[in-house]
């Protein structure tokens, strides 16, 4: 049964995926909008924000997964009238580790770049394993595989994923933020304390046993969390 609310719920995908990856969750809401990233060269977060600003209704609740969470943060900064609340799923304002910030090691990010430009098929298989970990469901693996983009369409986005630092933006966000994390996420290594130090008003829910796709592996828990936040 669809959730009875009048909110505009906007879903943004993660790196390498179509917005249809959100379909099983979006179908639960009566006013959902799924948006794909633009496919262009020399892409920037501001360019993406401008692109989406023409499609997102004012006062929307924006749900961004992984890289989509970064994009959602930047939209909230550039176009605050578009964003009533933010839900950041398996996301972080900075993916790569640095001083006083937990994240993916630079060597792992460099390996990702290398795979993207020399081992296209191997990268996709490697990435889906990371995204799905620790879940081993063949149904989830098939669902993820069916919702991936052609690798040529998202190589440009690797730079955004690994080079962007939106901690300052995260700190200044005035709208309510819900962070949903998986306790066993293989890609987001930041701890809840990292986010609380930046923005004390952030609500953080960690789903035990979940990885990078808590909305697939723990769908009912995920729906309960976001519904409580949306209706608060």
Short note summarizing the structure:
The protein is of the alpha/beta class and 232 residues long. The protein has helices at 23-26, 45-53, 67-78, 106-118, 120-132, 138-146, 156-163, 167-172, 192-198, 214-217, 219-231; strands at residues 9-12, 32-34, 60-65, 83-89, 177-182, 203-207. The chain has a single domain (9-231), classed as Rossmann fold (3-Layer(aba) Sandwich).
Model description:
The protein has 232 residues and is of the alpha/beta class. The chain has a single domain (9-231), classed as Rossmann fold (3-Layer(aba) Sandwich). The protein is built from 11 helices and 6 strands. The chain has helices at residues 23-26, 45-53, 67-78, 106-118, 120-132, 138-146, 156-163, 167-172, 192-198, 214-217, 219-231; strands at residues 9-12, 32-34, 60-65, 83-89, 177-182, 203-207. The chain has a 6-stranded parallel beta sheet with strand order 2-1-3-4-5-6, with helices on both faces. The longest helix has 13 residues, at 106-118. It is globular and about 45 Å long. The relative contact order is 0.17. The model has no long low-confidence stretch (mean pLDDT 91).
């Amino acid at each position: 049964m669809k959730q009875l609310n009048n909110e505009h719920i906007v879903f943004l995908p993660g790196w390498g995926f179509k917005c249809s990856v959100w379909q099983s969750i979006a179908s639960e809401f009566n006013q959902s909008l799924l948006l794909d990233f633009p496919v262009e060269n020399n892409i920037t977060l501001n360019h993406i924000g401008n692109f989406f600003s023409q499609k997102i209704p004012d006062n929307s609740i924006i749900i961004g997964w992984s890289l989509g969470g970064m994009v959602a943060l930047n939209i909230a900064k550039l176009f605050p009238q578009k964003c009533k609340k933010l839900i950041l799923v398996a996301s972080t304002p900075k993916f790569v580790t640095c001083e006083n910030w937990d994240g993916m090691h630079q060597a792992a990010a460099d390996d990702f770049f290398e795979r993207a430009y020399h081992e296209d098929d191997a990268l996709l298989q490697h990435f889906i394993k990371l995204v799905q970990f620790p879940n081993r469901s063949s149904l989830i693996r098939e669902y993820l595989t069916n919702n991936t983009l052609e690798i040529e369409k998202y190589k440009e986005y690797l730079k955004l994923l690994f080079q962007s630092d939106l901690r300052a933006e995260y700190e200044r966000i005035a709208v309510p933020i819900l962070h949903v994390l998986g306790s066993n996420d293989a890609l987001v290594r930041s701890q809840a304390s990292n986010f609380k130090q930046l923005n004390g008003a952030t609500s953080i829910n960690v789903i035990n046993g979940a990885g990078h796709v808590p909305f697939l592996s723990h769908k009912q828990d995920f729906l309960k969390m976001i519904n409580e936040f949306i209706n608060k």
